[in-house]
Structure formats: structure tokens, C-alpha cells
From TrEMBL:
GO molecular function list: metal ion binding
Cofactor details (free text): Binds 1 Fe cation per subunit.
Record-listed Fe cation binding positions: H57, H59, H101, E103
InterPro entries: Pirin, Pirin_C_dom, Pirin_N_dom, RmlC-like_jellyroll, RmlC_Cupin_sf
Coiled-coil annotated residue ranges, if any: none
Protein name: Pirin family protein
Entry cofactors: Fe cation
Similarity remark: Belongs to the pirin family.
Domain of life of the native organism: Bacteria
Keyword annotations of the record: Iron, Metal-binding
Domain Pirin C-terminal: start-end pairs: 176-273
Ranges of residues in domain Pirin N-terminal: 16-122
Annotated Gene3D superfamilies: Jelly Rolls
Length: 297
């Protein structure tokens, strides 16, 4: 039932550490999910430096999904979006043919507090890789269906699952769900999609006779219902969908075409990709010594 267990690897992104889950050498994608980071948890005192912010940077060929457990983050992008995301909400940004954005921690800088959340990259199907870039923000049960019963709190963040559909404009069959489980609570993940995984963001759960702890992700074999039991209060992220084919990923770019990524790198280095209008002009350069991976994901 469990094909693989992946331990999140800690990565310093310049201001704080993230837990990098995907891509992984033995499992590059789960459905269309090509990248998964657990941001934090990290505690900040007021007036921390602006160097912690994620400066403007580009993407192509994917959608990004930001979701917080704690804290707040301000999103700005080159299509004119500016919004602060707080826990239980979704920021969905589709890069398509190209977008740049930044993530600022302005409320945390003013008040201090904890940053704790998830960021995922979802690769676009080939027919949508060059679509116009866009952004949408989603909050509340009308957009993100919510369920609570028997020690389980569940929110559908994107896609379709458990007979519900989120308003997030996904472009391929997928699901992304946030579970909060009380100690002793049980819940099941049906065999609805061919590729499925569960990331334990906090706590401990038992699955198929195996214990999974915080910062571990299990990838499941297809075709069977997966039953979870919380050994202590736990948060679990369920994700997956249908495969969309291999993808190249280099720096912040995702594409089915190696040549398209080379073009995006050249455009960014030459300043041909628009920066967010409301940012201060600083941006993240593509490292000159960047070494791309040898094969597509």
C-alpha cells in the first residue's frame, strides 16, 4: 500500500528554512505536483530584516499554490495582484507563458509571530503551458469546501475529492486536502486517483501498520483505500491526481520542453520579463553557475 516514504530535507532559502519534499530522486512527481515545500515553522521577532522576504522571481509552465497554517504573507505579481494571505486561504497563481512575483512578510515584520505553511507547484498540461498568466485568491467554505466530524476537520484546497470541488481553477485532475485529526481519530483516503500521497506536517499517524511522523510523506500504490489513525493530534496534507507526463524543472521554471526553459532563462537574464509594479525593484538573479539537472522529472 505504501510505495515510498520521503523525509523532508531542510533547505535554507535565505531568510528561514523550508522542508523540501518534492521533487525527490526516487519520486519526482505525484500526479501533477512537481514541487512541495513546508515553509517553516519559523518564529520571528518584530522588525526582522527585509532580506527574509522572497524577492521578485519568475515562473513559466506551472501554477503555484500557497496555503498557511500560521502567519501571513503578502503576494505581489506582474499581472497587478496584491493581497495578503492568512491561514485557511489559498493563493493560486498560474504562470503559463510567464509571470513574476514576490512574497513579503510585512505583518510578521510589524508584529512578529510564526510562519508555517505549504507551497506547491502544479505542472500545467502541455495544452495550457503557454496560457495567459493569472492569479486568484480563495477563502471560505463556498470556495474551499469544509467538513468536520468525529475528530476530523477537513478542507479541500484544490481540485475534487470526497464528492466536493474547490473553486480554485485547476487545469488537470488533482486533489489537495488539509486534514486536522484529533488523537485517536480515523479517516480514509479513497482510491479515486491513480497517484496519491500524504504529508504529515505535524503529529503522528498510523497508516497500513506503519507510523509516519512530522515531515514525512508517504506515496501510495494505486487501487486501495488508505486508512489513517492519528496517534496524537496531527495535521496531514493529502495530494495527488493523474500524471501529465515528464517535466523539466530548472530553477523556477517548469516545462515539457528543454528549449522553452532555455528561452525563459535568457529572457529573465536579459530583463525581458516584467517585474511586479508594486515592488521595490530588487529581484532574484538566475545564478551564473547554475547547473541544470541531467534529465527531466
Amino acid at each position: 500500500m505504501i510505495d515510498l516514504v520521503i523525509d523532508a530535507r531542510r533547505r535554507d532559502i535565505g531568510g528561514f528554512e523550508v522542508g523540501r519534499v518534492l521533487p525527490f530522486a526516487k519520486r519526482r512527481m505525484v500526479g501533477p505536483f512537481v514541487f512541495l515545500d513546508h515553509m517553516g515553522p519559523a518564529s520571528f521577532d518584530p522588525n526582522f530584516p527585509r532580506s527574509v522576504d522572497v524577492r521578485p522571481h519568475p515562473h513559466i509552465g506551472l501554477s503555484t499554490l500557497s496555503y498557511l497554517f500560521e502567519g501571513a504573507m503578502t503576494h505581489r505579481d506582474s499581472v497587478g495582484s496584491e493581497i495578503e494571505i492568512v491561514p485557511g486561504e489559498v493563493n493560486w497563481m498560474t504562470a503559463g507563458s510567464g509571470i513574476t512575483h514576490s512574497e513579503r512578510f510585512e505583518t510578521l515584520r510589524s508584529e512578529g509571530g510564526v510562519m508555517n505553511g505549504m507551497q506547491a507547484w502544479i505542472a500545467l498540461p502541455k495544452e495550457f503551458e503557454e496560457m495567459d498568466p493569472g492569479f486568484s485568491h480563495h477563502a471560505g467554505s463556498a470556495d474551499l469546501p469544509y467538513y468536520e466530524s468525529g475528530g476530523l476537520k477537513a478542507r479541500l484546497i484544490a481540485g475534487e475529492a470526497f464528492g466536493a470541488k474547490a473553486s480554485v481553477p485547476a487545469h488537470s485532475p488533482l486533489f489537495y486536502v488539509h486534514w486536522e485529526l484529533a488523537a485517536g481519530a480515523k479517516a480514509a483516503l479513497p482510491a479515486e486517483y491513480s497517484e496519491r500521497a500524504a504529508y504529515v506536517s505535524s503529529g503522528r499517524v498510523e497508516v497500513a501498520g506503519r507510523e509516519l511522523g512530522a515531515a514525512q510523506m508517504a506515496v501510495f500504490a494505486p487501487g486501495e483505500t488508505v486508512v489513517f489513525e492519528a496517534l496524537e493530534p496531527s495535521m496531514v496534507m493529502l495530494l495527488g491526481g493523474e500524471p501529465i507526463g515528464p517535466r523539466f524543472i530548472e530553477w523556477n521554471f517548469v516545462s515539457s520542453s528543454k528549449d522553452r526553459i532555455e528561452q525563459a532563462k535568457a529572457d529573465w537574464r536579459a530583463g525581458r520579463m516584467k517585474l511586479p509594479d508594486l515592488d521595490d525593484g530588487e529581484f532574484i538573479p538566475l545564478p551564473e553557475d547554475y547547473t541544470p539537472p541531467a534529465s527531466p522529472l
